[in-house]
Amino acid sequence: MMRWVWLGAALLAAPLQAGEVVTSPAPGKVAVTIYRAPQRPADEPMALGWLGGYALITETREVSIPAGEAEIRFEGVAAGMLPESAIVTGLPGDVAEKNLDADLLSPRNLYARAFGRPVVLRRTDAGGTHEEAAIIRSGPDGAAVLQTKAGFEIANCGGLSDALAYQGLPAGLNARPTLSVATQSPRAVRALVQLSYLAWGFDWQAHYVLAMRPGAREADLTAWVTLASSDATSFSQAKAAVVGGKPHFDEVREGWPESGEMELTCQITHMPPPPAMKPAPPPPVIATLAAPAVMAMRAFSVEKALAPVVVSQEALGDLKLYRVPMPTTVAAHAQKQVALLDARRVKLALIHGADITPGGSAQAQIKLRLHNRKADGLGLALPAGKLTVVQPLGDAAIPVGEGRLDDKAEGEEATIAIAASTQVRIKTIATPWQDGVRRTIATVTNANRWPVHFEGRLRIVQGASVERSSTPLSRRDGLPLWSVTVPAHGKAVLTYTEREPNPPRR
Amino acid sequence: MMNKALWIGVGVMALASAAQAQTAKPDSAQGEVSLTIYNNDLALVQDKRELTLPAGRSAQEFADVSAQIRPETVTLSAPGAGVVEQNFDYDLLSPERLVDKGVGQGVTIIRTNPGTGAETVEHGIILANNGGTLVQIGNRIEVLADMHARLVFDKLPDGLKARPTLSVTLDAAQVGKRPVNLSYLSRGFGWKADYVALFDEGAGKIDVQGWITLKNTTGTSFPHAKVLLVAGTVGTSDEDSSESRPRGFAGTEAADREQVGDFYVYPIKARTTVANAQQKQVSFLDVKGAPAAKTYYYRNGWLAGHDDAQSFATVLSFSNARNGGLGDALPAGTVRVYMRDAQGNPQFVGEDQIGHTPMGSTLVLKTGEAFDVKIKPTVDKREKIDSAEWERVARYRVNGKVGVLEAAKTYWRTHMTYRLTNARAVPATVEVVQAGLGGDTRVSAESQPGTQRSADERVWKVTIPAQGEVVLTAQIDTRY
């Protein structure tokens, strides 16, 4: 029995680094700031299986640092860490080097490191199980030829079921990618070390619910921030925040690490070469704490007992930081929601808009126009997100439209298309061009039991001008604009004449 | 039970000593290793090993070379010995290759009784291994797969390696120990710089730390190596220069660093372990309080208009000159910019890539898009003008005289409106660029004077008051 112990110890090779190794198992305090997936449009939902956003994680750890050279290993960091972004501060000495060791402890690596070394071969057949000594004689790419007492043979062949047992762990293999720093301290000290890094596998999304009040001139706007993590590490009691705006971030997320599989197969005749690309592993299953549907239900209920806890907002350079006011747990493989805003009696205008193309006809788009200012009940930086419009119908609030809101600064106007109207339509009749002019008659009809405000942009030929119109026109976005109120069950007509582009006559 | 364990222990011991005889060092067969690493997946590995050579010809195996060695680049020098030939064997030992090489040779066949587990040992010959293994035992020929049997070989065939192996046949004049210099190029190495920049907008200062990030994906570890990093790519590559973004200018100062040709080299002071699958970072720059400025930039394409306001790019500029800058040449990499939030904690505000930057340059980083500073460009009107008007505006030409006057009678006048807004509590100075002005172009009216930065681009510098707006207009006359 003694020999066993001796052999096991001999296989545990000494670590390569000089100096004492100090392990910090987990952060004491942690702050998580989540950034949106850079390319994801405002109204596209988060891809929970492969979150494309990222987070800045700032951890405070209390570490006992010995005098002299030391290696400090940080465990319990996010699995999606971008090691090149790691910053370590608070050490008494300089950080000489930072290392991320990603040579992981896997069946394949264990086999590779045991090459040429003795292992225990456990063989099972109908007669039972027995163990014998063996030496690995092939690398993991051409698994697995073993040297046994009998000679050289192939594992797991000929009616036997073989398994390998290793007698100790080789140095340099880690259960998880591990960040370590080499440092030097003049004396032993207990230091508060701050470690911050960016990590993949996070995302957040804003969702607005606009509950229309009768008359469609005011609405209550509530918004939720949903933050999600697909990381394997949970951050409990974290200071959480999300960042609005578009920071430039063009890191390429690396694919899944190489498979650590190692199978003892008795494949002794030629097989077609394995496909070069490994199939992507199935996306991890995400547990959902609060499904969007649940959130929607909550938001849709017309009566609310209490105003929710709302994130606080501050400027961060040219971005916006929305801070969750209380410590919260950013759990692994989960999402959570916090209120972003709870605004009452927000002023708005409901517009039916369309582009008027001579000879064409169209449905009008229902649009909301909000002015993001205090006087109108808003006046704060609104991060991009999806917007759902609901309207009371009896006891329920039913969705009547959906649109998207881009990042809107304070003071900006937002026009959001939420649905195509079946009741308001535009139809045009145009004469052919003659002597450089063309006449168009545009008729807008309203089948609603209430009047609507209609805005039509005249799509005129480049360089052309409107010579005459039956109603005065204004301009928007470089095009003539016809604004009119269409009575209930009524219509409105515009007649205008376009002139083809020609040099001005003198 | 005790008995059996003891037997296994003894067996392992015996086999272990056999293993020991094959590999000289338990950890690595490498000698004194120096790595010279370039940016583009290339490194020069110099490995000085002590070898004891017999007199005359002998084959020497060099284990623990990089698994991504470029074998055609291997050079070997040994005092008093000449190279006869170099081989790089990547015929790996695998069950298939073992059986393939065993065709026509004797082998031990152990049958296991599937019912009782009893073993029968026979001797035979492997006849063929084509889509199934055929063995001959005495006069019988059988298919191995149907036999419930396994093969045991007396020895491993020559030429099959567990790992790709470099072997060199040397011809030595006399027996003896001598240093052998092995050098080769390898793939699977690379490095870049990573910068951490903490920007203080109020003070207009920036703290920059530079780290060299080194990556080893060769499959081989290099313990205790001397490492030299070369800031440059060997071979040809083009730097992207057509991007629609603000650019700084290149400096002409020389940094206090060693150079190899045009490239700066960054040595790592102490010997260090470059482990496989490791990403290592070493500090090379730490500058506090360098002046830095933030501006806003937007480039509008020709005849581009938007229904929604667009964000200005947030642009950070600073110098790496000796005076008033970082004072070092900067190797290519990523600059990550941080700013402090209201509670004083640094938060990430964006990043940008830089190329190899000589000292004395102005760096211009686009860190993101401004939430509060926006532009809404509109093509207000396009109209035709006649040649008399075209002649009248000739003095507003932006590119000097271009070609001969054409016979055409009509030209285009474009009215551009740029509505600039700023929701911040402080004024913002922005740079609006109108692109696409090549050829004979005249800016015949503009609401404030612009400057022609290049034949293609006109620039207006505008200060937008805090929580205010400015409407910038321009009248641009073109041939088409």
Number of helices of chain B: 3
Largest sheet of chain A: 20 strands, mixed
| Structural class by SSE content of chain B | mainly beta
The amount of beta strand of chain B, in percent, is: over 45%
Biggest sheet layout of chain B = 13 strands, mixed
- Global mean pLDDT of chain A: 82
Rough outline of chain A: elongated
Task: Tell me the number of strands of chain B.
Answer: 29
What is the CA-based Rg of chain B, rounded?
Answer: 36 Å
Of all chain pairs, the largest interface belongs to: A-B, 108 and 128 residues
Tell me the distance between the termini of chain A. Answer: 113 Å
Low-confidence regions of chain B? 1-26
Shape label of chain B: elongated
Assembly annotation: heterodimer
First and last CA, distance of chain B: 97 Å
**Helical content of chain A (DSSP H or I, runs of 4+):** under 10%
Instruction: Tell me the β content of chain A.
Output: over 45%
Give the radius of gyration of chain A.
Answer: 34 Å
Number of helices of chain A: 3
The tally of strands of chain A reads 30
Provide the low-confidence segments of chain A as ranges. 1-17, 271-305
Tags for this model:
heterodimer, A: 506 residues, mainly beta, 20-stranded mixed β-sheet, 5-stranded antiparallel β-sheet, 3 helices, disordered N terminus, B: 480 residues, Immunoglobulin-like, 13-stranded mixed β-sheet, 8-stranded mixed β-sheet, 29 strands, 7% helix, elongated
Summarize the structure in words.
The complex is a heterodimer of chains A (506) and B (480). Chain A is mainly beta and 506 residues long. Helix content of chain A is 5%, strand content 50%. Among the domains of chain A are: 115-165; 344-499, no CATH class. Chain A has 3 helices and 30 strands. The longest helix of chain A is centred in the N-terminal third of the chain and has 10 residues, at 2-11. Among the domains of chain B are: 95-152, no CATH class; 191-222 and 243-298 and 312-366, no CATH class; 373-478, Immunoglobulin-like (Sandwich), CATH 2.60.40. In chain B, 7% of the residues lie in helices and 52% in strands. Chain B is built from 3 helices and 29 strands. Chain B has helices at 2-22, 95-101, 387-392, and strands at residues 32-37, 43-53, 56-62, 75-77, 81-89, 106-112, 119-129, 133-137, 140-143, 149-153, 165-172, 176-186, 189-200, 205-216, 222-231, 259-260, 263-267, 272-274, 278-300, 310-319, 333-340, 346-354, 362-386, 410-422, 428-434, 441-446, 451-452, 458-464, 468-478. Classes of the chains: A mainly beta (506), B mainly beta (480). At the A-B interface, α1, β2, β6, β7 and β8 of A face α1, α2, β6, β10 and β13 of B.
